[in-house]
């Protein structure tokens, strides 16, 4: 029964995404980025709902729509790629693993969207990606980064890599933290089975550059790790 339900939900999700793709591709070519992102947020919200995710978002009031942020949170599932744009009402792009750009359809979409590829196991290439992210933020576009680098294998938040925090300090970025809860239960890394239910995104108060300028990269990493872990655990509070 669970396998049949999962097959049904995957089929619905893939069909809806294939219908959404040409709409987004046209929007990226013909409409302003702000309108395209609004459309994408609506389509991704529908995508999540028809696949069995009841998305709940808190903390939107902390966001200044006129501010540029470095957005950081935990990485629970493949579906983070839909949940984050659906939950955070900002014009943003992301840093994604380079191999994502070779995935049919999805790779085309994220390339057109302006996402930044990163080779996490190649330090010099990773530095180039972070420089590209710095240039993007200078144009006023927020960037989402998942500092774990990979989806969790256990449901717990893995240690954070230091690259995103070098980026934060080099750009003097305001950091917008968030925690995702419930998505690991919905779909685990490498798994086929889907377990419909509630997924919550808790957005925290922005951490302004002035409040962390005196911290080292390692101290900043630990501060943000604790904040995101607290936000992710608030699902059960």
What does this structure look like?
The chain is α/β, with parallel strands linked by helices. It has a single domain, classed as 3-Layer(aba) Sandwich (Glycerol-3-phosphate (1)-acyltransferase). Helix content is 48%, strand content 16%. It contains nine helices and seven strands. It has a seven-stranded mixed β-sheet with strand order 1-7-6-2-5-3-4, sandwiched between helices. Helix 1 packs antiparallel against helix 2 and helix 5 packs parallel to helix 6. The longest helix is centred in the first third of the chain and has 29 residues. The chain is globular. The mean pLDDT is 90.
> How many whole angstroms does the radius of gyration measure?
17 Å
Low-confidence stretches: none
The average pLDDT value, as a whole number, equals: 90
The spatial strand order of the largest sheet comes to: 1-7-6-2-5-3-4
Q: How do the helices and strands follow one another from N- to C-terminus?
A: HHEEHEHEHEHEHEHH
Major sheet summary line: 7 strands, mixed
**Count of all domains:** 1
The CATH homologous superfamily is called: Glycerol-3-phosphate (1)-acyltransferase
The CATH topology name reads Glycerol-3-phosphate (1)-acyltransferase
Structural class: alpha/beta
What proportion of the residues is helical, as a percent range?
Answer: 40-55%
Whole-Å distance between the termini?
A: 32 Å
Q: What global shape is seen?
A: globular
**Beta-strand share of residues:** 15-25%
For the record, the CATH architecture stands as 3-Layer(aba) Sandwich
CATH class, named Alpha Beta
Number of strands: 7
Give the count of helical stretches: 9
């Amino acid at each position: 029964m669970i396998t049949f339900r999962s097959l049904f939900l995957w089929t619905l999700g893939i069909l809806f995404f294939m219908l959404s793709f040409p709409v987004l591709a046209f929007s990226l070519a013909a409409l302003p980025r702000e309108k395209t992102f609004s459309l994408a947020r609506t389509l991704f919200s529908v995508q999540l709902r028809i696949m069995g995710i009841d998305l709940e978002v808190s903390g939107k009031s902390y966001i200044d729509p006129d501010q540029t942020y470095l957005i950081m949170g935990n990485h629970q599932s493949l579906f983070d790629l839909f949940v984050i744009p659906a939950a955070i009402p900002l014009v943003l792009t992301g840093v994604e693993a380079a191999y994502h750009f070779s995935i049919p359809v999805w790779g085309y979409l994220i390339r057109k969207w302006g996402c930044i590829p990163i080779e996490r196991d190649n330090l010099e290439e990773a530095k180039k990606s972070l420089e590209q992210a710095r240039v993007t933020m200078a144009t006023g576009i927020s960037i989402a980064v998942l500092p774990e680098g990979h989806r969790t294998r256990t449901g717990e938040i893995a240690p954070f890599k230091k690259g995103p925090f070098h980026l934060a300090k080099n750009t003097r970025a305001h950091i917008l933290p968030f925690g995702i809860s419930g998505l690991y239960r919905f779909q685990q890394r490498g798994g086929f089975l889907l377990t419909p239910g509630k997924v919550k995104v808790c957005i925290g108060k922005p951490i302004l550059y002035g409040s962390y300028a005196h911290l080292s990269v390692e101290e900043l990493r630990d501060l943000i790790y604790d904040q995101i872990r607290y936000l992710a655990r608030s699902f059960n509070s």
